[in-house]
Amino acid sequence: xxxxxxxxxxxxxxxxxxxxxxxxxxxxxxxxxxxxxxxxxxxxxxxxxxxxxxxxxxxxxxxxxxxxxxxxxxxxxxxxxxxxxxxxxxxxxxxxxxxxxxxxxxxxxxxxxxxxxxxxxxxxxxxxxxxxxxxxxxxxxxxxxxxxxxxxxxxxxxxxxxxxxxxxxxxxxx
Length: 174
Prior knowledge:
This protein is mainly beta and about 170 residues long. It contains no helices and 11 strands. It has strands spanning about 20-30, 40-45, 50, 60, 65, 70-80, 85-90, 100-110, 120-130, 135-140, 165-170. Strands 2, 4, 5, 7, 8 and 10 form a 6-stranded antiparallel β-sheet that branches. It is globular and about 45 Å long.
């Protein structure tokens, strides 16, 4: 009978639950290219330049992720190389109200600035925006260094992969 035929799995009926609306953005450079130099006590906008968004919840332009009003879960990370203390946060670039700019505060880490040290800052949390908003990943380093925003990987043998530095995953909750 037709009742025993297998059902096609779709985004809306996987195990009887709606599939999450999720996008992933990342900062990528060709093999051998760094993510850029850090500048002493300066806030940098991470250069997000790739987006995978099968559910259509976001767009990406000029390192800004545009989201519609809603509540979202986010997780992100970004490297710091040889740059001392550094911190990452999710920033609402839409408003000019400086008290409302930080959506999610990330961890502060230390990439030893007296040795060849690389470390990642992480953030995760839930935020709500009431209007369509442009969000960006902000990263601040204590010490200015060549390649301070991410040291490049060139190649091992014949393997020459692009470098992926900062990454962010966003899931729409409501």
